[in-house]
Amino acid sequence: MPNPNSAKTHILRRQRSQHKKSTKNFKQRRKNRLKHWKRGNIFSLNRSSRKERDLETLNLVAPQHFKFIENTDSVLTFIKTGKKALMEGLPVRFDISKIQSLSPDAIAILISHLTSFRSYGTTIYGNAPDDEEMKELFTSSGFYNYVNSHKKFEPSDKNLMHKESNFKVKPEIAEKATMLINSNGDYSEDNIEAIYSIFIEMMSNTHHHASLNKFGNSKWVIYVYNDTKNEITSVSFLDLGVGIFKSVVMKNYLKKIAIKFPLVRNIILVDDLLSGKIGSRIDVDNEIRGKGIPQIISYSKLPFFKKFYLITNEVKINLKTGEKDELRNNFGGTFYYFELCSKLKNNESNTVN
Amino acid sequence: MKVTQSIDIAKEFSSKPGARYKYEGDFSGQLFLESLLLPKFDKAVQEGGKVLIILDDVLGYPSSFISGSFGKLSIDKGADQVLKHLEFESKNQMRIDKIISEIQNPKKK
Fold first, then answer.
1. A295: which chain B residues are within 8 Å (Cβ-Cβ)?
2. Complex confidence, ipTM
3. Which of the listed residues A101, A208, A279, B81 has the most CB atoms within 10 Å of its CB?
């Protein structure tokens, strides 16, 4: 026999709900939600808590030139400012709607940081660029697979964005990325070997070195972008660990002391890094380790890589020329970026030294 | 010395070799060494023969993979012994040179 009290409770609740929906405030909020939903490019991460609804969302405007390699410090400042606010419990909108230029490396940096900020439990909002061309680049990247959005954007099949959550080396992802790059280019077997090997070494380095406390504790992100119009393929690979200079072993005793009491800036260690003098901190099989980064550096010199950069800690290195820049901000992690030209010129060779 | 054993890496192991150790992920150098290379090498040594290693139809050989398999074998058995009982076949001479170089000098400079 139905409980008369539960029926009464249900009716009362229903009446309250219907009354709420008839108020002016509710109707206005529903109208706003629909407006944002129709615009379709708004995303969010984390649910907002009751406490947060009382706080005003910080609208953080991205640098006009939203390009990580070309405008490193500005992009890092943008991300760090957002991180600080989120850590303090303030919801943040990462506003890239008004940017004037956008590059694929910035998209990779943004998604890796935003998903790592989830752990703060504070709501994160964002949007896409207003400019149609940049919006297309952004929405077809695969970015929206990692955030909540009312509208779903299918990533282009010419691109690959993968975030590794199991902290492993994934030969199948390296293969997928390599084949995708090859589909947009005219590469020899040696070129393909170099590209594939680079991916495996990068994944392995993240597994072993990105965390000081434990192996396999850091995630990596890879983003392959095929720009068919300009015949360029760009690849971003990064982890948000501790950075190369914080995780390696100095062979030179004096340098060890200098690093411990920060008398020496990491930038002066770049030459040691490029010449393979920096060793692995892992004791097991130490004698056969430490070949990954030298291998990457060696491959970076091949002519079919048009650009090859490494950003780690406070240093940005052009691996093709050896030029180094000191950053104002510390990038806690390791970021590799390279570009390949789809069509090789006839006189370009691909010999590895 | 006759070839008494053979390994076609693409067909018997993988066309996409991984990193150095099994704990890192699939198709590691360590797995290749333990499951294929070492058993066949030991058998070839017993028979007084060689192992033919076919390197083709593989995407690439990361240095970690080579180090974890051929490099480790060289450290355990000695470079001369390994080079005496291994033979390589590939359309890509650079691959062969890379592996032989690792066997000859498996430790860092």
1. 62-63
2. 0.95
3. A208
